[in-house]
Amino acid sequence: MAQKVVLITGCSSGIGLTTAVTLARDPQHRFKVIATMRNLNKRDKLEETAGDTLNRTLEIKQLDVCDEKSIQECIDSIPDRHIDILVNNAGVGMIGPIECQTIEEMKVVFETNFFGVVRMIKEVYPDMKKRKCGHIVVISSVMGLQGIMFNDVYTASKFAVEGFCESLIIQALKFNVYISLIEPGPVVTEFEMKAYEEAARGDYSGTDPVTAEMFTNMYLNNSKAIFNSLGQKPDDIAEVSKGHLLKVILAEVPPFRHQTNPIYTPLTALKHADPTGDLATDVFYKMVFRYDRLMHASLSCIKLMRGLCVMCPDERSF
């Protein structure tokens, strides 16, 4: 069986790096990985992690999802422009009160998270349709299904991605092209941790004192607790043993949506249980403003249970 060519964006760290190396190290050598990143000066960590797969089953190329010329040059450098699987992973985050964020900063988020995905799909989708074969994977988020306080712009960019793919999948299937949205909850990466550290030192004089206090003391503290208790690692997303990204890629009929953290499934389902939106709004409001102590206690219990599962790997995972 010929190797499948997999192009992955945003491979300098996190989920992109881990996915690229996981596929490149496949014992059955089923994949030829094109690991791309905007800035090749950040390739050292990927090269070190890739080890002996480098320039064998893994090749590193420059690609900026915000630059159409960069995308075209990268795709044109691949023999016959043949890509079996596209993994759209490149993304940026933004948190904080909207009064403290400029429209230009918001546009940067959409340029990468939404238009970056659209640019990549526009470039590879026509070739996949001609071959009547292909798989487009998009690293989305549970925040593409449910809005989270102080993630307004990031959430909007992921909602846009979800709506775009939900529309495109219908015609894509006619050409035997599959689309899969991978929807993680919090993922612990150096990028995420740095973003939250910088947010804690931010200037929020542009908003009112109540909102600034709400963000710096309530939101950031709650986020830290959530990441510590519910956060997954990039390995959890990429490895087949966890049943996530690699399993989706290997599926004979790939799913359109796949959530990597089952704890979030009931929360994302609330809006479908009540079309008015009142149920979801009420639940999240009370979690944040009324039952925050109970939420923290629950997170501590979850963290303890997950720790016990790690110590007893033969038991059913939480």
UniProtKB/TrEMBL annotation:
Residues noted as binding NADP(+) in the record, renumbered to the chain: 10-38, 64, 158
**Pfam families named in the record:** adh_short
> Does Lipid metabolism count among this protein's keywords?
yes
Coiled coil located at which positions?
A: none
Q: Which UniProt keywords apply?
A: Lipid metabolism, Oxidoreductase
Active site per database record: Y154 (proton acceptor)
> Organism's domain of life?
Eukaryota
Keyword Isomerase (UniProt)? no
Annotated GO MF terms: estradiol 17-beta-dehydrogenase [NAD(P)+] activity
Q: Which InterPro entries match?
A: 17beta_DH (IPR011348), NAD(P)-bd_dom_sf (IPR036291), SDR_fam (IPR002347)
Q: Which residues bind substrate?
A: S141
- SUPFAM superfamilies according to UniProt: NAD(P)-binding Rossmann-fold domains
| Example of a GO cellular component annotation carried by this entry | cytosol
The record's Gene Ontology biological-process terms are:
estrogen biosynthetic process
Q: Which family does it belong to?
A: Belongs to the short-chain dehydrogenases/reductases (SDR) family.
Protein name as it appears in the record: Retinol dehydrogenase 8-like
Which species is this record about? Erpetoichthys calabaricus
- Tell me the gene name: LOC114664893
